[in-house]
Design brief:
By secondary structure, the protein is α/β, with parallel strands linked by helices. It has 3 domains: about 5-220, Rossmann fold; about 245-320, Tyrosyl-Transfer RNA Synthetase; about 330-399, Structural Genomics Hypothetical 15.5 Kd Protein In mrcA-pckA Intergenic Region, Chain A, CATH 3.10.290.10. About 45% of the residues lie in helices and about 15% in strands. The protein is built from 19 helices and 13 strands. It has helices at about 5-15, 25-30, 50-65, 80, 95-105, 105-110, 130, 135-145, 150-155, 155-165, 170-185, 200-210, 245-255, 260-270, 275-285, 290-305, 305-320, 340-345, 355-360; strands at about 15-20, 40-45, 70-75, 125, 190-195, 215-220, 330-335, 340, 365-370, 370, 380, 385-390, 395-399. A 6-stranded mixed sheet has the order 1-6-5-2-3-4, with helices on both faces. A hairpin with a 2-residue loop joins strand 9 (about 365-370) and strand 10 (about 370). Helix 11 crosses helix 12, helix 14 (about 260-270) packs parallel to helix 16 and helix 18 (about 340-345) crosses helix 19. The chain is globular.
Length: about 400
């Protein structure tokens, strides 16, 4: 049953929403009519983990699911191989089909923290290679005829690249075209996405009007940004994966800029907006931001890992960073043979590769029993003991 309660609709269309096109009033009226709508949000698998920014969009999809509408989580299994040029000063590295498949293998499992994929009104999971890979050259040309070069060049990042003499590749113009066709292939009534995706989402509106002769609404959501206006992402920094370990997630939240607190409360938690306003007033009035971040970090970790894990993560943070104690629990690694420091860092998963291990050591980020290590190629002998530490939050006990 579709829920048409005016107050609930207003909450869904207001909280965390930057803009609704063509009009918020028109979309609100459609929701109030009782018609069951089909909405989607697309996610390109450019990394193996969904992150907090994705959580904002998944939470909004869930709100529409709870209102009784049909929602789709779309995996950009084809568009990820093109590479979204949004906000990029250079063309993205194009992924292979194998890389895309490997990156997205656990995405549905992670998304179940937000969406119901079983039972009544189950969310749908789709992949856009199912239709985009089948388009003929004739069909691509027909789709392209709905857009002009001037429209594509209006994008800020293309204008910046032109001014800086940087190349713009032809395949980058195809990205909004392909994302736009997703809306046609799935016959949707609305698309949800970050505000940075507005151009691509409007391309879908253009194609839906031209090919399906119907309206498509666009819901642009607010972004988590730092003080410089850069969004939180793997490429821009501040990346928090939704499958990060509880202690790691808690620590990353505590390390974020104080100016992010209110934005996180609004976009990533279920705290009422009146409580958000109270927190804003409290911070403005001089409350220590650390206390507010600790409450926020506990709420976010609880959402992803449960209350027990959140309590444990908070205790870990207090013990390690406030009391300066070593964590009571850490991974053990037994030295069975002589290895270089770089090999040990990779084997203990303190680094993903020898290259990263070398950079960490050169930057002074690795210590053994609080002594900074300076040579990634130092040979560590069997039987070496001590606590190997990366940065402030990651520990391994050599036994």
């Amino acid at each position: 049953m579709v829920i048409t309660d005016e107050k609930r609709i207003d909450e869904v269309l207001t909280r965390g929403v930057e803009n609704i096109l063509p009009t918020r009033e028109g979309f609100a009226a459609l929701l109030a009519s009782g018609q069951r709508l089909r909405l989607y949000c697309g996610f390109d698998p450019t990394a193996k983990s969904l992150h907090i920014g994705h959580a904002i969009q998944l939470r909004k999809l869930r709100q529409f699911q709870d209102l009784g509408h049909e929602v789709i989580m779309l995996i950009g299994s084809f568009t990820a191989m093109i590479g979204d040029p949004t906000d990029k000063a250079a063309a993205r590295v194009q992924l292979t089909a194998e890389e895309v498949k490997e990156n997205s293998v656990n995405w549905k499992k992670m998304a179940t923290k937000f969406l119901r994929f079983r039972g009544e009104n189950a969310a749908l999971l789709m992949r856009n290679d199912k239709w985009l890979a089948k388009l003929t050259m004739r069909e691509v040309v027909d789709l392209a005829s709905n857009f002009t070069m001037q429209q594509m060049m209006e994008r800020d990042m293309f204008q910046r690249r032109t001014a800086e003499g940087k190349p713009i590749y032809l395949h980058e113009f195809l990205y909004p075209l392909m994302q736009g066709y997703d809306s046609v292939a799935m016959v949707v009534d609305a698309e949800i996405g970050g505000n940075d995706q507005l151009f691509n989402m409007l391309a879908g509106r253009t194609l839906v009007k031209a090919l399906l002769h119907k309206e498509k609404f666009v819901i642009a959501l607010k972004l988590l940004t730092n003080d410089e206006g850069k969004k939180m992402s793997k490429s821009e920094g501040g990346f928090i994966a939704i499958d990060d370990a509880p202690e790691e997630m808690y620590g990353k939240l505590m390390a974020m800029n104080d100016g992010m607190i209110i934005s996180y409360l609004e976009l990533v938690t279920d705290v009422t907006m009146s409580d958000v306003d109270e927190m804003r007033a409290s911070l403005t009035g001089g409350e220590n931001p650390r206390n507010a971040k600790m409450r926020l970090a506990k709420m976010v970790v609880k959402q992803f890992h449960g209350l027990r894990a959140a309590v444990k993560a908070e205790k870990h943070f207090v013990d390690v960073f406030q009391k300066k104690e070593m964590p009571s629990e850490m991974v053990d690694f037994k030295m069975m043979e002589a290895l270089t420091l770089a090999d040990v860092l990779v084997a203990t998963k303190l680094a993903e590769s020898k290259g990263e291990a070398r950079r960490l050591v050169e930057q002074g980020g690795i210590t053994l029993d609080d002594v900074k290590l300076t040579d990634a190629f130092t040979v560590m002998i069997p039987g070496a003991t001590g606590v190997l530490r990366r940065g402030k939050r990651q520990f391994v006990r050599l036994t």
